[in-house]
Amino acid sequence: MSLDTPRTETRPERLTDHEARQRLEHERASRLTQLQAVDEAGPDAGEQLMSAQKDTIRRVLAEIEAAFGRVQDGTYGSCRGCSRAIPVERLEILPYTSWCVPCQRDAG
User: Fold this and answer.
1) What is the largest CA-CA distance in the chain?
2) From residue 102, how far is each of 39, 49, 70 by CA, in Å?
């Protein structure tokens, strides 16, 4: 299928609060499992690498918790940079994001 071909199925413009919470719960559970696996790797694993992995997982967990707050206050799915709706496809892939792709690029 060409990128120029119009899509026949229509996608919702936004995730429902229920869908957003489900995706965020899944992401949180995955990160907690990763954190547990890093903790269980033991002292033989490189301490510096383990510390970096833990920091990354904890940062993502904090982003997930912030996303739950945005669901609650009604701002979930709105870009922090431009205030436009974040495309649902992006939220399906990265449900805790608070940036659309162009604004993420500009912020990075």
Assistant:
1) 54
2) 36, 31, 20
Mean pLDDT value across residues 59-65? 97
Domain ranges of the chain: 17-107
Instruction: Report the mean per-residue pLDDT for the chain.
Output: 86
User: pLDDT-derived band of residue 72, with 50, 70 and 90 as boundaries?
Assistant: very high
Q: What are phi and psi of 45, to 5 degrees?
A: -70, 150
In this structure, of 31-45, 47-61, 76-90, the range with the lowest mean pLDDT score is 31-45
Residue 91 phi, psi dihedral angles, 5° rounding: -70, -30
Look at residue 44 in the predicted model and tell me its pLDDT: 64
User: pTM of the entire structure?
Assistant: 0.73
Sign of CA dihedral 16, 19, 21, 24: negative
| Exposed / middle / buried, residue 24 (Cβ in 10 Å: 0-12, 13-18, 19+) | buried
Q: 17-107 adopts what CATH topology?
A: Four Helix Bundle (Hemerythrin (Met), subunit A) (1.20.120)
